[in-house]
Specification:
The structure holds two protein chains of two kinds. By secondary structure, chain A is mostly helical. Chain A is 74% helix and 2% strand. In chain A, a hairpin with a 2-residue loop joins strand 1 and strand 2. The N and C termini of chain A lie far apart (64 Å). Classes of the chains: A mainly alpha, B mainly alpha.
Chain lengths: 302, 340
């Protein structure tokens, strides 16, 4: 009796040890590569409130950090005696304009097109879908080069606000196919019967779309808006390439410019700037990660 | 609509004998037109709904694609004139004949970049996808870990670049300090060659890993639990379950992720641009797309850069054609169907 007992206990013990070792292996595979990432983002927070360069995430001189790093919010950004950027909020509004414009454009294009593609069999539907996939796989640098020529021909290169608006238009159009694809999935999930009911009851097609289907895919539209907003918020290449005047830069280009100026010199300010710039992304991301994890978008460029 | 029909009926009914032929014709023509319109309304509706989308496609994809084909046969520079090269294929001759000494270097870097980063983006993300769904059962922990893996992807690319620049800073960067500890001496992870290339791969690996992870994770969730239970009852260990059951079932998602990530890596250069920019070539991280970008927007040789971009586009399209052949169109878009 006793011997059997111990052997069972031994088995249980061995099983438990095995389980623990397994868990250690699993967690170390997933977590060890995460260490640099956690360190970097942790550094961003710590450094934003420290006056001196930080290496191991220990804040240094928090008071000085608070005084120095966040000055960019209240006045011009200076290096030595020269003013690099007159006004931080100007950059902020430019970025807001770009991302809100992108969002509006993307939502209006995709909610029309997604519905048409989802609901109607028409000639050219399959080729259209294929074209979207093909376009998506073409390296973006090709379009960037040709669009530069177009902007020049149209006289829109280096024209301040007009260029910013053009960039917004381009950004919205560039993002549209991918999000049309995404929204089509949401339209597909709305049962046909609801629309039939509306049509039988005397709704026109447009009214059925507007009053019956759109409210039902509100989560989809919300997700598309948020992604489009974040994508506009983070946009770098188009602004960096096409906008020449610093008053019309967005936060991303200003930050890369400042990184070039202040790297090794003023990490505190850079971190504070980045932290401020990143806030909307983080807030939106945490609020919507449920959607994000479920998304089946075709490959994301990156 | 109804009223029109009613009026027509009325006219037909009460028309005088001698006007009957005329009203009959009128009736026929009008009803036919209305029928046509009724059928056409569907078309009008579709066209109206698709127009903004199609316009946007033409504006940012169609027109520029056509233009860059043209541009690739010119010597276009900052004057932006379409003056044809002499001979017409000059740009392609320079590139494909390796007359530009930078081309072989860039080709090698691109092959290294795509070849090694894909191991992280499709291979390591497979491990992550399985571990965060099958092995880590606690949903909160798994979600948190996945969120952390997503951070590089969601943060604006410029911030991500700044973070790496700090991480590899020659004075205070942890990477530099660590490499000093393990005896590598004074190395600059940004500028010194093998290290900068390693860094380039790691930087992009972190961005790419999360996408594959999500695809694999959702695929693992569609595996019927009975299969896994049966294996466990028969005495298979977790490791055996993963290697003998889950991974074979993930064959299609694996191909899918590899296919898309190869294409996306061929075209991606923003991270490298933001971290290295002007130092990319000397640091050995100038990939093909970045080379094309620099030829256009740093050297202002737009014709040459369009030709460079065309080459990478042709490579991508050939790859895509192969994928379509192998997968079929449907599978190319739906990653997570598990065939048991």
């Amino acid at each position: 009796m006793r011997r059997q007992d111990t052997s069972i206990r031994g088995l249980v013990l061995r099983a438990r040890i095995r389980k623990i070792i397994g868990a250690i292996i699993v967690y170390s595979i997933v977590c060890i590569p995460l260490i640099p990432i956690v360190m970097m983002y942790g550094w961003l927070v710590v450094q934003a409130f420290s006056a001196k360069p930080v290496t191991w995430l220990i804040p240094k001189d928090v008071i000085g950090g608070l005084k120095n790093n966040w000055r960019f919010l209240f006045g011009p950004i200076m290096k030595g005696g020269t003013v690099l950027y007159e006004d931080f909020w100007r950059l902020f509004y430019n970025t807001l304009l770009l991302s809100l414009g992108t969002t509006g454009l993307v939502v209006s294009i995709t909610s029309f097109a997604g519905y048409a593609i989802s609901r109607f069999e028409f000639r050219g539907r399959d080729p259209l879908l294929k074209t979207v996939v093909i376009l998506h796989s073409i390296p973006g640098v090709l379009f960037l080069i040709a669009l530069m020529y177009l902007l020049n021909v149209l006289g829109l290169y280096g024209k301040g606000l007009w260029t910013l608006l053009t960039v917004t238009l381009l950004k919205g159009c560039l993002e549209a196919p991918m999000y049309t694809w995404m929204l089509k999935g949401f339209f597909d999930a709305v049962p046909w019967e609801l629309e039939w009911a509306a049509l039988v009851d005397g709704c026109g097609r447009f009214k059925a779309w507007r009053k019956v289907v759109l409210p039902l895919i509100f989560p989809g539209i919300a997700a598309v808006s948020i992604f489009a907003f974040l994508s506009g918020w983070g946009e770098y290449l188009l602004v960096y390439t096409y906008i020449t005047r610093a008053e019309y830069y967005t936060l991303s280009v200003a930050l890369s410019d400042l990184t070039f100026e202040f790297l090794y010199i003023d990490y505190g300010m850079l971190a504070a700037f980045s932290l401020f710039y990143m806030l909307p992304a983080v807030v939106f991301f945490i609020a919507t990660q449920k959607y994000l994890m479920r998304l089946r978008v075709i490959a994301y460029k990156g | 609509m109804e009223e029109v029909y009613k009026t027509l009926e009325y006219i037909k009914k009460y028309a005088k004998e001698y006007t009957r032929p005329v009203t009959n014709i009128l009736y026929k023509v009008t009803t036919r037109f209305l029928e046509r319109l009724k059928r056409a309304r569907r078309t009008i509706f579709i066209v109206a709904f698709l127009t903004p989308f199609l316009l946007s496609l033409v504006l940012v994809y169609g027109l520029p694609s056509a233009l860059s084909v043209l541009m690739s046969f010119t010597d276009m520079d900052l004057r932006f004139e379409l003056d044809w090269s002499n001979p017409l294929y000059k740009n392609y001759y320079i590139i494909l004949g390796m007359k530009d000494p930078r081309v072989p270097v860039v080709t090698y870097v691109t092959a290294l970049y795509v070849g090694v980063t894909i191991l992280i983006n499709a291979g390591f993300s497979l491990v992550l996808g399985i571990l965060t769904t099958y092995c880590i059962r606690n949903e909160t922990i798994a979600t948190t870990l996945r969120l952390l893996w997503f951070l590089p992807r969601i943060s604006p690319v410029v911030i991500y670049a700044l973070l790496w620049q700090w991480f590899a800073d020659p004075r205070v960067g942890p990477l530099t300090i660590l490499s000093k500890w393990i005896g590598l001496g004074e190395v600059s992870w940004i500028l010194d060659k093998p290290y900068s290339q390693i860094l380039m791969i790691i930087v992009n690996g972190y961005v790419g890993a999360s996408w594959g992870m999500v695809i694999y994770a959702s695929a693992v969730r569609t595996i019927p639990l009975e299969i896994l239970y049966a294996a466990r009852v028969d005495g298979a260990s977790d490791f055996k379950v993963i290697t003998k059951i889950i991974i074979p079932l993930l064959k299609w998602p694996l191909l899918f992720v590899t296919a898309w990530q190869t294409l996306s890596l061929l075209g991606s250069y923003v991270q490298i641009l933001t971290i290295w920019n002007g130092f990319a070539y000397v640091s050995g991280v100038e990939v093909w797309s970045l080379f094309s970008y620099h030829s256009a927007f740093a050297a202002y040789k737009f014709g040459y850069s369009a030709a460079l971009a065309m080459i990478i586009v042709i490579v991508s399209l050939v790859l895509l054609a192969v994928y379509f052949k192998v997968f079929g169109f449907r599978r190319m878009l739906e990653p997570s169907r598990i065939e048991v």
